[in-house]
TrEMBL record:
Protein name listed in UniProt: 2-C-methyl-D-erythritol 4-phosphate cytidylyltransferase
Entry GO MF terms: 2-C-methyl-D-erythritol 4-phosphate cytidylyltransferase activity
Family the entry assigns: Belongs to the IspD/TarI cytidylyltransferase family. IspD subfamily.
Organism: Paenibacillus xylanexedens
Keyword tags: Isoprene biosynthesis, Nucleotidyltransferase, Transferase
Amino acid sequence: MDKGWGVVIVAAGRGTRMGTTESKQFLLLQDKPVFIHTLEVFAALDEIREMVLVTGTADVERCQDWVKEYQLDSRVRVIPGGKERQHSVHKGLEALGTDWVLVHDGVRPFVNHEQIKGCMAAAISGGGGAVLAVPVKDTIKQVNAEGVVTATPDRSSLWSIQTPQAFRLSSLLSAYESAEQDGFLGTDDAMLAERQGMSVKVVEGNYTNIKLTTPEDLQYAAFLLGGEKKR
Ligand SMILES: Nc1ccn([C@@H]2O[C@H](COP(=O)(O)OP(=O)(O)OP(=O)(O)O)[C@@H](O)[C@H]2O)c(=O)n1
Ligand SMILES: C[C@](O)(CO)[C@H](O)COP(=O)(O)O
């Protein structure tokens, strides 16, 4: 019997680029922590059987308190993360018992159900992985250490990759274990699957699925929350 879908929500970072004392995943948007907004989106999906929140060791207890306060404790387990995003994801993957997994950044609260379901469907139909993404709007250039342009890739082939990223759990776990053995550190989950030769499909999302990273993202987040937050 298919064991369905699990989700790993990663929220164990420092949020250095945000420049706030409080880590960005715990900042309040309309009086609610960013990561709670994110958890609520996935908790509302019946397709999700298991949810794991990965946070800093020192933040596990207060995250458990917040999860309880927002009546998510029957849906969400809280576990400690690691030094890098990759380490945190790996711990989350090891905590799941499902057949499929979505990995999502806890600081992307504006993902919606249509996008999540599109990612899930693409992973299943493609047999490999699927990632949400949007076509880049700016011209992207490769630049060397001296700040000199070395290449301008064809923009029509460039996508800005988001999360969630969806995979068969066993395949992604295997890719994570290989990366650990090889000492390879990637910036997203698909990178680890690609290096194992796995096919990864891009699913077009939208530009509002931002990752809260720098202060101006908070202003945009407030604007987005001011409008109707579509699920
Ligand atoms: N060791 C880490 C590092 C990052 N993350 C999570 O991965 C997501 C994307 O990472 P990023 O936006 O880079 O967050 P930070 O690492 O906190 O940001 P910064 O690089 O500015 O410190 C975030 O939800 C973050 O909490 C994590 O779970 N564990
Ligand atoms: C996974 C990711 O959100 C895809 O764009 C991004 O790579 C995370 O990068 P970060 O530096 O860990 O925020």
